[in-house]
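Notes from the pairing session

We agreed to fold both candidates in a single pass and log them together. This is the raw record for the first candidate, unedited. Please don't reformat it; downstream parsing expects exactly this layout.

Candidate A
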Amino acid sequence: MKTFPVLSNTTAAYLAGLFDGEGSVSIIARRTWGLRVSIYSAADDGFLRAIYNECGQPGCFVRVKRKRYRPLFNWEMKGPALKWFLTSVEPWLRLKKTHAGIALDMYTLLEGHRKGKSLRISPHEQATRKLLQLALEY
Protein backbone atom coordinates (compact mmCIF):
# COMPACT_ATOMS: atom_id res chain seq x y z
CA MET A 1 0.00 0.00 0.00
CA LYS A 2 1.35 3.40 -0.96
CA THR A 3 2.13 5.84 1.83
CA PHE A 4 1.64 9.55 1.41
CA PRO A 5 3.72 12.33 2.94
CA VAL A 6 2.59 14.52 5.79
CA LEU A 7 2.25 18.00 4.29
CA SER A 8 3.54 21.11 5.99
CA ASN A 9 0.88 23.66 6.89
CA THR A 10 2.19 25.97 4.16
CA THR A 11 2.00 23.29 1.45
CA ALA A 12 -1.44 22.11 2.60
CA ALA A 13 -2.76 25.69 2.61
CA TYR A 14 -1.31 26.31 -0.86
CA LEU A 15 -2.91 23.11 -2.20
CA ALA A 16 -6.22 24.08 -0.59
CA GLY A 17 -6.14 27.43 -2.41
CA LEU A 18 -5.27 25.72 -5.67
CA PHE A 19 -8.09 23.20 -5.17
CA ASP A 20 -10.57 25.96 -4.23
CA GLY A 21 -9.76 27.81 -7.46
CA GLU A 22 -8.98 25.10 -10.00
CA GLY A 23 -10.25 21.86 -8.51
CA SER A 24 -13.34 19.71 -8.71
CA VAL A 25 -14.93 16.74 -6.94
CA SER A 26 -16.88 14.24 -9.03
CA ILE A 27 -19.10 11.34 -8.05
CA ILE A 28 -19.39 8.86 -10.88
CA ALA A 29 -22.68 6.97 -10.70
CA ARG A 30 -22.71 4.49 -13.52
CA ARG A 31 -22.78 0.73 -13.24
CA THR A 32 -20.41 1.03 -10.30
CA TRP A 33 -19.93 4.07 -8.09
CA GLY A 34 -16.71 6.03 -8.04
CA LEU A 35 -15.25 9.22 -6.66
CA ARG A 36 -12.60 11.51 -8.16
CA VAL A 37 -10.81 14.74 -7.23
CA SER A 38 -9.13 16.76 -10.00
CA ILE A 39 -7.00 19.89 -10.18
CA TYR A 40 -6.66 21.53 -13.61
CA SER A 41 -4.15 23.94 -15.08
CA ALA A 42 -4.41 25.55 -18.49
CA ALA A 43 -1.12 27.42 -18.16
CA ASP A 44 1.79 24.99 -18.30
CA ASP A 45 2.51 21.79 -16.49
CA GLY A 46 5.59 23.08 -14.65
CA PHE A 47 4.14 24.25 -11.35
CA LEU A 48 1.39 21.61 -11.12
CA ARG A 49 3.83 18.80 -11.94
CA ALA A 50 6.29 20.16 -9.34
CA ILE A 51 3.59 20.03 -6.63
CA TYR A 52 2.52 16.57 -7.82
CA ASN A 53 6.12 15.33 -7.48
CA GLU A 54 6.63 17.05 -4.11
CA CYS A 55 3.54 15.27 -2.76
CA GLY A 56 4.92 11.85 -3.74
CA GLN A 57 2.97 11.54 -7.00
CA PRO A 58 -0.44 10.54 -5.63
CA GLY A 59 -2.98 9.74 -8.35
CA CYS A 60 -2.08 10.44 -11.96
CA PHE A 61 -0.95 13.43 -13.98
CA VAL A 62 -2.46 13.75 -17.47
CA ARG A 63 -1.95 16.12 -20.39
CA VAL A 64 -5.26 16.57 -22.24
CA LYS A 65 -4.94 17.61 -25.88
CA ARG A 66 -7.61 19.96 -27.17
CA LYS A 67 -8.15 21.06 -30.77
CA ARG A 68 -7.54 24.77 -31.35
CA TYR A 69 -6.74 25.32 -27.66
CA ARG A 70 -3.66 25.00 -25.52
CA PRO A 71 -3.42 21.67 -23.70
CA LEU A 72 -4.99 21.20 -20.30
CA PHE A 73 -3.07 19.54 -17.46
CA ASN A 74 -4.97 17.45 -14.96
CA TRP A 75 -3.90 15.99 -11.63
CA GLU A 76 -6.48 13.33 -10.76
CA MET A 77 -6.82 11.35 -7.54
CA LYS A 78 -8.99 8.40 -6.57
CA GLY A 79 -9.08 5.93 -3.68
CA PRO A 80 -6.56 6.35 -0.84
CA ALA A 81 -4.86 9.28 -2.64
CA LEU A 82 -8.19 11.12 -2.69
CA LYS A 83 -8.73 10.51 1.04
CA TRP A 84 -5.16 11.65 1.85
CA PHE A 85 -5.51 14.81 -0.24
CA LEU A 86 -8.90 15.89 1.12
CA THR A 87 -8.02 15.21 4.75
CA SER A 88 -4.74 17.13 4.30
CA VAL A 89 -6.29 20.26 2.78
CA GLU A 90 -9.75 20.33 4.39
CA PRO A 91 -8.81 22.64 7.31
CA TRP A 92 -7.66 25.32 4.84
CA LEU A 93 -10.46 25.06 2.29
CA ARG A 94 -12.85 27.98 1.94
CA LEU A 95 -15.01 27.52 -1.16
CA LYS A 96 -15.03 23.73 -1.41
CA LYS A 97 -15.02 22.76 2.26
CA THR A 98 -18.58 21.40 2.05
CA HIS A 99 -17.74 19.47 -1.14
CA ALA A 100 -14.68 17.95 0.53
CA GLY A 101 -16.78 16.83 3.51
CA ILE A 102 -19.37 15.24 1.23
CA ALA A 103 -16.63 13.52 -0.78
CA LEU A 104 -15.07 12.10 2.39
CA ASP A 105 -18.49 10.84 3.54
CA MET A 106 -18.99 9.20 0.14
CA TYR A 107 -15.49 7.71 0.27
CA THR A 108 -16.32 6.11 3.62
CA LEU A 109 -19.49 4.61 2.12
CA LEU A 110 -17.67 3.31 -0.95
CA GLU A 111 -14.63 2.01 0.93
CA GLY A 112 -16.35 -1.27 1.76
CA HIS A 113 -17.45 -1.92 -1.81
CA ARG A 114 -14.52 -2.36 -4.16
CA LYS A 115 -14.97 -1.26 -7.75
CA GLY A 116 -15.82 -4.08 -10.09
CA LYS A 117 -17.33 -6.29 -7.40
CA SER A 118 -21.02 -6.94 -7.76
CA LEU A 119 -21.95 -6.70 -4.10
CA ARG A 120 -25.54 -5.88 -3.34
CA ILE A 121 -26.15 -2.72 -1.39
CA SER A 122 -29.17 -2.00 0.71
CA PRO A 123 -31.87 0.43 -0.49
CA HIS A 124 -30.90 2.68 2.44
CA GLU A 125 -27.27 2.85 1.29
CA GLN A 126 -28.36 3.43 -2.31
CA ALA A 127 -30.53 6.34 -1.16
CA THR A 128 -27.68 7.74 0.96
CA ARG A 129 -25.36 7.64 -2.07
CA LYS A 130 -27.92 9.45 -4.19
CA LEU A 131 -28.42 12.14 -1.54
CA LEU A 132 -24.66 12.71 -1.28
CA GLN A 133 -24.44 12.90 -5.07
CA LEU A 134 -27.23 15.49 -5.20
CA ALA A 135 -25.67 17.49 -2.35
CA LEU A 136 -22.38 17.63 -4.25
CA GLU A 137 -24.08 19.05 -7.34
CA TYR A 138 -25.27 22.14 -5.47
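Candidate B (folded immediately after A)
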Amino acid sequence: MLIFSLLILLLISILLDGTVTSVPLVLAIILCLGIISKEKVFIIAFFAGAILDIFRLQPLGSEAIFFLLFLALVMLYQNKYEIGSYPFVVVSSFIGSYVYLLVFNRYDSLFQPLACSIFALVLYSISQIRGVRTKNS
Protein backbone atom coordinates (compact mmCIF):
# COMPACT_ATOMS: atom_id res chain seq x y z
CA MET A 1 0.00 0.00 0.00
CA LEU A 2 2.88 2.35 0.79
CA ILE A 3 4.51 1.79 -2.60
CA PHE A 4 1.15 2.31 -4.33
CA SER A 5 0.73 5.64 -2.50
CA LEU A 6 4.20 6.73 -3.57
CA LEU A 7 3.47 5.78 -7.18
CA ILE A 8 0.28 7.87 -7.17
CA LEU A 9 2.26 10.74 -5.69
CA LEU A 10 4.89 10.21 -8.39
CA LEU A 11 2.28 10.56 -11.15
CA ILE A 12 0.96 13.76 -9.59
CA SER A 13 4.47 15.15 -9.22
CA ILE A 14 5.29 14.30 -12.85
CA LEU A 15 2.32 16.43 -13.90
CA LEU A 16 3.31 19.26 -11.54
CA ASP A 17 7.01 19.08 -12.37
CA GLY A 18 6.36 18.96 -16.09
CA THR A 19 3.94 21.87 -16.18
CA VAL A 20 3.91 24.13 -13.12
CA THR A 21 6.87 23.98 -10.76
CA SER A 22 10.62 24.05 -11.22
CA VAL A 23 11.41 22.18 -7.98
CA PRO A 24 12.44 18.61 -8.90
CA LEU A 25 9.76 16.77 -6.94
CA VAL A 26 10.14 13.66 -9.08
CA LEU A 27 13.77 13.34 -8.05
CA ALA A 28 12.83 13.36 -4.36
CA ILE A 29 10.11 10.75 -4.84
CA ILE A 30 12.38 8.51 -6.88
CA LEU A 31 15.03 8.78 -4.17
CA CYS A 32 12.51 7.74 -1.50
CA LEU A 33 11.25 4.89 -3.68
CA GLY A 34 14.83 3.75 -4.22
CA ILE A 35 15.59 3.69 -0.52
CA ILE A 36 12.32 2.04 0.51
CA SER A 37 12.00 -0.59 -2.22
CA LYS A 38 15.08 -1.35 -4.23
CA GLU A 39 13.32 -3.62 -6.70
CA LYS A 40 11.96 -2.26 -9.97
CA VAL A 41 12.75 1.34 -9.03
CA PHE A 42 15.05 1.73 -12.03
CA ILE A 43 12.20 0.93 -14.41
CA ILE A 44 9.98 3.45 -12.62
CA ALA A 45 12.73 6.08 -12.77
CA PHE A 46 13.26 5.51 -16.49
CA PHE A 47 9.59 5.89 -17.37
CA ALA A 48 9.16 8.90 -15.07
CA GLY A 49 12.08 10.61 -16.81
CA ALA A 50 10.75 9.73 -20.25
CA ILE A 51 7.32 11.15 -19.41
CA LEU A 52 8.93 14.32 -18.05
CA ASP A 53 10.93 14.67 -21.26
CA ILE A 54 7.72 14.39 -23.27
CA PHE A 55 5.99 17.05 -21.15
CA ARG A 56 8.94 19.44 -21.42
CA LEU A 57 9.58 18.80 -25.12
CA GLN A 58 13.20 17.84 -24.46
CA PRO A 59 15.26 15.13 -26.15
CA LEU A 60 13.71 11.85 -25.10
CA GLY A 61 15.74 10.08 -22.45
CA SER A 62 17.83 12.93 -21.04
CA GLU A 63 16.07 13.10 -17.68
CA ALA A 64 15.61 9.34 -17.65
CA ILE A 65 19.35 8.85 -17.94
CA PHE A 66 19.95 11.37 -15.16
CA PHE A 67 17.48 9.61 -12.86
CA LEU A 68 19.08 6.24 -13.61
CA LEU A 69 22.58 7.56 -12.90
CA PHE A 70 21.40 9.23 -9.70
CA LEU A 71 19.79 6.01 -8.46
CA ALA A 72 22.86 4.01 -9.42
CA LEU A 73 25.04 6.32 -7.34
CA VAL A 74 22.68 6.07 -4.37
CA MET A 75 22.61 2.28 -4.61
CA LEU A 76 26.40 2.24 -4.97
CA TYR A 77 26.73 3.84 -1.54
CA GLN A 78 24.26 1.39 -0.03
CA ASN A 79 27.00 -0.78 1.49
CA LYS A 80 29.25 2.10 2.53
CA TYR A 81 26.69 4.37 4.20
CA GLU A 82 23.35 3.85 5.88
CA ILE A 83 21.15 5.06 3.01
CA GLY A 84 18.02 4.73 5.11
CA SER A 85 19.04 7.50 7.50
CA TYR A 86 17.55 10.97 7.53
CA PRO A 87 20.88 12.83 6.96
CA PHE A 88 21.59 10.71 3.89
CA VAL A 89 18.15 11.46 2.45
CA VAL A 90 18.60 15.21 2.99
CA VAL A 91 22.16 15.42 1.65
CA SER A 92 21.61 13.15 -1.35
CA SER A 93 18.40 14.90 -2.36
CA PHE A 94 20.05 18.32 -2.00
CA ILE A 95 23.12 17.36 -4.06
CA GLY A 96 21.02 15.45 -6.60
CA SER A 97 18.59 18.30 -7.14
CA TYR A 98 21.40 20.86 -7.30
CA VAL A 99 23.19 18.88 -10.02
CA TYR A 100 19.87 18.18 -11.77
CA LEU A 101 19.00 21.87 -11.92
CA LEU A 102 22.50 22.78 -13.14
CA VAL A 103 22.50 20.12 -15.87
CA PHE A 104 19.08 21.07 -17.20
CA ASN A 105 19.62 24.86 -16.93
CA ARG A 106 16.81 25.49 -14.45
CA TYR A 107 18.90 26.69 -11.54
CA ASP A 108 17.70 29.97 -10.02
CA SER A 109 18.71 29.92 -6.36
CA LEU A 110 19.44 27.61 -3.46
CA PHE A 111 15.73 27.59 -2.68
CA GLN A 112 14.95 24.85 -5.19
CA PRO A 113 17.44 22.25 -3.88
CA LEU A 114 16.53 23.19 -0.32
CA ALA A 115 12.81 22.76 -1.04
CA CYS A 116 13.52 19.42 -2.73
CA SER A 117 15.50 18.15 0.24
CA ILE A 118 12.80 19.26 2.70
CA PHE A 119 10.15 17.56 0.53
CA ALA A 120 12.25 14.37 0.42
CA LEU A 121 12.75 14.46 4.20
CA VAL A 122 9.02 14.89 4.88
CA LEU A 123 8.11 12.20 2.36
CA TYR A 124 10.66 9.76 3.77
CA SER A 125 9.53 10.49 7.34
CA ILE A 126 5.90 9.83 6.45
CA SER A 127 6.82 6.64 4.65
CA GLN A 128 8.83 5.46 7.65
CA ILE A 129 5.95 6.20 10.03
CA ARG A 130 3.45 4.43 7.76
CA GLY A 131 5.85 1.53 7.26
CA VAL A 132 6.33 1.08 11.01
CA ARG A 133 2.59 1.34 11.61
CA THR A 134 1.80 -1.32 9.00
CA LYS A 135 4.51 -3.65 10.33
CA ASN A 136 3.19 -3.36 13.89
CA SER A 137 -0.44 -3.88 12.89
